[in-house]
Design a protein that fits this description.
Structural class: mainly alpha
Strand content: under 5%
Helix content: over 70%
Radius of gyration: 17 Å
Largest sheet: none
Order of helices and strands: HHHHHHH
Oligomer: single chain
Number of helices: 7
């Protein structure tokens, strides 16, 4: 499989994956771009693996976790310039509110917990696949998921009380 064929088939999924990891579409683009630079330089080795998609996801995860460790994070600035703003669409406020609640809940997790939750519940991966992506044991994955679920329950309960 060539890199072009791989990207044609997998780029939309990788983009959604990066977006779910970061919670910020602009940061997700940056993370995915950085990860794809690594993929291009290692494509010959990656394409020879049994599961290139998992390998590339691991690169995206590592890039995301590395970015989180940096002292200065890339940020986008809001703009009032009407020329750069999107055109108005039908009201999607309910979906935005739900997405915002999920993003706020996920933002309270540690980066590794967030990766584990996204891999489990967005990509439906098992413990072994998540462990491979995080570079840890299956038991550690179960621990991350358990702690994440507890934190999410507590945060969701707190949000409900405030409403």
């Amino acid at each position: 499989m060539t890199l072009e064929e791989f990207l044609s088939a997998e780029l939309p999924g990788l983009s959604r994956f990066a977006g779910a990891l970061t919670g910020d579409p602009h940061l997700a683009e940056d993370i995915l771009s950085d990860a794809l630079l690594v993929v291009v330089s290692r494509w010959r080795r990656i394409s020879a693996t049994e599961n290139p998609v998992a390998y590339v996801r691991r690169i995206v995860v590592n890039t995301h976790l590395s970015d989180r460790r940096k002292a200065k994070r890339r940020r986008t600035e809001p703009s009032g310039d009407a020329a750069v703003l999107d055109r108005a669409d039908p009201d999607a406020s309910d979906a935005v509110v739900r997405r915002d609640e999920v993003d706020r809940l996920l933002a309270e997790l540690t980066p590794r917990q967030r990766v584990a939750v996204v891999l489990r519940y967005l990509l439906d991966q098992d413990d072994q696949e998540i462990a491979q992506a995080l570079g840890c044991s299956s038991a550690t994955v179960r621990s991350h998921l358990s702690q994440a679920r507890a934190a999410l329950r507590l945060s969701a309960h707190t949000l409900t009380e405030r409403s």
